[in-house]
Design goal:
The chain has one helix at 15-18; strands spanning 33-34, 42-46, 49-54, 60-64, 69-75, 86-93, 96-104, 112-119, 128-136, 148-151, 157-161, 168-170, 177-188, 199-205, 209-217, 220-227. With 237 residues, the protein is mainly beta. The protein has a domain at 15-21 and 86-117 and 137-227: Glycosyl hydrolase domain, family 43 (Tachylectin-2, Chain A), CATH 2.115.10.20. Strands 1-5-4-3-2 form a 5-stranded mixed beta sheet, with no helix packed on it. Strands 10, 11, 12, 13 and 14 form a 5-stranded antiparallel beta sheet that branches. It has a 4-stranded antiparallel beta sheet with strand order 6-7-8-9, with no helix packed on it. Pathway: Glycan metabolism; L-arabinan degradation. The record marks 146 as: Important for catalytic activity, responsible for pKa modulation of the active site Glu and correct orientation of both the proton donor and substrate. The active site is at residues 40, 210.
Length: 237
Amino acid sequence: MRSTHLTPLVTLTTLFAFIGSSVAGSPDPKAVKGVINVHDPSMIKKGNTYYVYTTGGDIGMRTSTDRINWVYAGKAVPWWGTTDLWAPDISLHNDTYWLLYAHPTANTLRTAEIYLATSTSLESGSYTDKGIVIASTESSPYNCIDPSAIQDYEGNWWINFGSWSGGIDLDSRLPIVLINFSIYIFRVDSNGKRISDPKKIAERPSTALEGSTIFKHANKYYLFMSFGNCCPTTTGV
């Protein structure tokens, strides 16, 4: 990635209302209806239809033509059956859609894989399994979950990932082991194959990081992520 620094940008918005609105205009958020029980949504528009991919068992799909009324549209990667898959990320690469998603192993800290499936139509049943992009084990310094793709200003594609239980750091000043939560990034080729080693771009010792996404604007990169615990305490962005 070019040397332009990644600047954290703290903001909150309504996902479904924001997509498609102009920068200068007001989103005017409205309540959504239909099949809206989703977690970790990733949305893309094709023609007049919006597609949302979600966590929960297999990667489920929802579609809408107005971002308000949503219907269930099947499974994106049915070959997994009912396997628990996480945090899909959908993006367009020339004429091919890339669907990244994570497969964590139950009862482990860092054993997980990030997979890629591709489609030219976004429809259920149209995806082709491209296999593992990157994997982590209990001895890895990172955790291969929550992938997100970004194209840099030179046209290169990168995947950022990582979060909960991202690694272990030993702090000589303290008689304890600290969990070091980190976000990593690596470069991929036009087929989604990894061509560089993962590089740490953000960390927050002893505080969970999840769901990172990078946007680019005005010759800078903006890294969004959530931190903190889900429910008993405050969660930040």
